[in-house]
Amino acid sequence: MSPQASQALPPNATPPAQIRNFCIIAHIDHGKSTLADRMLQITGVVEARQMRAQYLDRMDIERERGITIKSQAVRMPWEQQGEVFCLNMIDTPGHVDFTYEVSRSLAACEGAILLVDAAQGIEAQTLANLYLAMENDLTIIPVLNKIDLPAAQPEKYAEEIAGLIGCEPEDVLKVSGKTGEGVEELLDEIVAKLPPPEGDADAPARAMIFDSVYDNYRGVVTYVRVVDGALHPREKIAMMSTKATHELLEIGVISPEMLPSKGLGVGEVGYLITGVKDVRQSKVGDTVTNAGAPATEAIGGYKDPNPMVFSGLYPIDGSDYPTLRDALDKLKLNDAALVYEPETSAALGFGFRCGFLGLLHLEIVRERLEREFDLDLISTQPNVVYEVTMDDGSLITVTNPSEFPYGKVAEVREPVVNATILAPSEFIGAIMELCQGKRGQLGGMDYLSEDRVEMRYTLPLAEIVFDFFDQLKSKTRGYASLDYQEAGDQAADLVKVDILLQGETVDAFSAVVHKDKAYAYGTMMAGKLKELIPRQQFEVPIQAAIGARIIARENIRAIRKDVLAKCYGGDISRKRKLLEKQKEGKKRMKNIGTVEVPQEAFIAALSSDDSAVDKAKK
């Protein structure tokens, strides 16, 4: 390192040659968080009395479900041959819905630990994350975890990994995150194999924001990886995309709690606090530079995620709308993939149309909003974005079924995905049957070993966002794994099914479905609403319609008062007169009466959860 470079480093900063930045990538439940726990213990950054399982999973929801939702950065010291190295590790999520967290982490690293369960082998998300790491030109260290399990087959899966990434089976490290076996050798391997970060210490400061969180007392806390130059406390910094400038109140490293320092140099990972409360000013993927001597070019390599599934979020109490808006603003800071805009519904009032990466993402966001901000929410049926071309050539983008145009439609295009399914070969028939039922097209099939097969399908996104994954798991006894990527769009025979109550369309229940499934959706929804809507004083027809054509109907019978109770005999004409009078009254009531749909009925009809239906019936 040149003398000039060392002068540019802040006091106490680690020289780049002694830094190793890496992340752990794997399929869900392959032991990433457990391995991270052992590394924290072995390197001594967490004392034994403070240690708890899944130490880096900070949210209650992560601990309850046993999954990582947020990637977490941590700095660990590791001594080798008398030299102390600084290891910056990022623990990443494994679920397909949180791939954007992984892609951000990869942009901040030089290497990745590819972790595979020695009892389960390579799964779909392992492959997806591996390809992401290869696209970023990262050095990959293959590791087999859980070798202490009785069902582990390390030799078999070491050959599978070796065939996949082009190394020798003996190069695959074998560790146990639970017992700590082999973890020290892995830390030595990280120091030996991974390249140190490269950057110009004398250039203007450039640091990439790869994550940020909101602290009620300190404002926005921004996590950065310094690429060039250095950042020091009390200097003025600028965000290159928003052009906002702030004073740097505190800068430091995460080990694993926040430790203030005198600055960050080339290759270091740490946090910045500016005291700013406006959450929109710290954008993930943005470049931080020195306001006095700014860099001319921003750091590239990070793409904004595209939402795949849209759903409306509405507060049950209308007065909670401003709280929901603030809550979404704060959550977006912590979750870069969340997209939202205001919308109104005649049935549900004011709310937001939100874009998510998948159903688990939707579920987690909704649960976090309810827990962290004390809100009660309704989410509408998830749906995808359609492109509708009218006969006159005009193009309409539909993110909500209520926006689907009436009139002559020339073509409707729906998004499709390339799905990769990994499963034991005995389930090929069941998987093919399921995918064909979901309008899938087989793209190819490869055997990874004699009993494991990789199947590639092109599937409409609308078909897989509901219960495809659940059905796949049940048909393969839980052995199959799924990963999918966007693959453009295709023309499809789609129609909008409206639900009418007493001839009035209820926008919240509308859906865009394939023509072959329209009748099934119409009868299902009409039957569900018949159970949920309380009986009125008059008969209420529930109809499902495509345009002006009614395709299904159910009737809610009227509550009828017994007007003949006071007649103890006498002429039949007297009874008939009373019944005719009642009939006229019912008819008049039907003309002026409106059907009140209780909130519970909306929640139950819009959720796929049967418990909500039972609750509404009570």
Automatic annotation (TrEMBL):
Cite the GO molecular-function annotations of the record. GTP binding; GTPase activity; ribosome binding; translation elongation factor activity
Keywords from the named record: Cell membrane, GTP-binding, Hydrolase, Membrane, Nucleotide-binding, Protein biosynthesis
Segments traversing the membrane: none
Q: Which reaction does it catalyse?
A: GTP + H2O = GDP + phosphate + H(+)
An example Gene Ontology CC term for this record: plasma membrane
Quote the record's binding site residues for GTP: D29, H30, G31, K32, S33, T34, N145, K146, I147, D148
Instruction: Give a GO biological-process term.
Output: positive regulation of translation
Q: Which InterPro entries match?
A: EF-4, EFG_III/V, EFG_V-like, EFTu-like_2, G_TR_CS, LepA_C_sf, LepA_CTD, LepA_IV
Look up the EC number in the record and give it: 3.6.5.n1
Source species, domain of life: Bacteria
Q: Where is the Tr-type G domain?
A: 17-198
User: Where found?
Assistant: Cell membrane
Q: What membrane topology does this protein have?
A: Peripheral membrane protein
Its chief place of residence is membrane
NCBIfam families in UniProt: lepA, small_GTP
Which family does the record claim for this protein? Answer: Belongs to the GTP-binding elongation factor family. LepA subfamily.
Q: What does this protein do?
A: Required for accurate and efficient protein synthesis under certain stress conditions. May act as a fidelity factor of the translation reaction, by catalyzing a one-codon backward translocation of tRNAs on improperly translocated ribosomes. Back-translocation proceeds from a post-translocation (POST) complex to a pre-translocation (PRE) complex, thus giving elongation factor G a second chance to translocate the tRNAs correctly. Binds to ribosomes in a GTP-dependent manner.
Full protein name: Elongation factor 4
- Species per Swiss-Prot/TrEMBL record: Janibacter indicus
Which gene name does the record give? lepA
